[in-house]
Design a protein that fits this description.
By secondary structure, the protein is an alpha+beta fold. It is built from two helices and five strands, in the order αβββαββ. Strands 1-2-3-4-5 form a five-stranded mixed sheet.
């Protein structure tokens, strides 16, 4: 599986997890923005960058995520799906 397909699969996996928690999720497919998913819940919004496999967020990516200004009820998160691990590692910025 190439890198794009692996990343897209991880994004869809994250979407399914969030939808089971009651979020309405939008995937920013094809965009080159800092966030891959926006998840809207009844009381909060989550802006999520998804990483697949052993990939980490680079220093440049992390800085871009941290510089984005969001309202108080929006959390900025990095979700890492490691190979053969069911649940993502979630880091809130």
């Amino acid at each position: 599986m190439n890198g794009y397909r692996k990343g897209a699969a991880a994004e869809y996996r994250a979407m399914r997890l969030l939808e089971t928690l009651g979020y309405y999720v939008i995937r920013a497919a094809g965009s080159h923005g800092v966030f891959d998913l926006a998840a809207f819940g009844p009381h909060d919004v989550r802006a999520i960058s998804v990483k697949a496999g052993g990939k980490y967020c680079s220093a440049v990516e992390r800085e871009q995520l941290e510089l984005v200004v969001v309202p108080a009820n929006v959390s900025k998160e990095i979700w890492r799906f490691k190979d053969r691990v069911k649940d993502p590692l979630i880091e809130r910025l």
